[in-house]
Specification:
The chain is mainly alpha-helical and about 110 residues long. The protein has one domain. Helices cover about 60% and strands about 0% of the residues. It has five helices and no strands. α3 runs antiparallel to α4 and α3 packs across α5. It is globular, with a radius of gyration of 13 Å. The relative contact order is 0.17.
């Protein structure tokens, strides 16, 4: 399904899923988001290049949690996503993002550079 609807699914993941990484009250949700991202990376691979900057920063922020399973899930996602980041240079911001998400992508790219 993600192959066919990548833009709409990734917009929902960015809007609904990635903010859940910051919610410290639900450990299982944070672990699930990490697992979701790694599943997308394994399934979509290079199709996620344009989304790499938007996915890396929330994962990076969640890597210092004290729950081993969350940390492992998020770290595995981060490690799988990092090789895609250099490929994102010069790739335009994905269409369909709102202004806030588009500017966040530019800011995150600058920071990670």
């Amino acid at each position: 399904m993600a192959w066919v609807m990548i833009k709409s699914i990734m917009i929902d993941v960015l809007k609904l899923g990635m903010p859940m990484l910051g919610d410290i009250t639900y450990v299982e949700v944070r672990k699930g988001v990490g697992m979701l991202v790694i599943s997308f990376i394994n399934g979509l691979g290079l199709e996620l290049i344009a989304y790499a900057p938007l996915l890396i920063m929330p994962l990076l922020g969640c890597m210092n949690v004290f729950n081993f399973l969350v940390c492992q899930s998020v770290t595995n996602s981060f490690v799988a996503l990092v090789p895609l980041f250099p490929l994102a240079h010069g790739v335009p911001t994905p269409r369909g993002l709102n202004e806030c998400q588009a500017s966040k992508s530019v800011e995150d790219t600058r920071f990670l550079d």
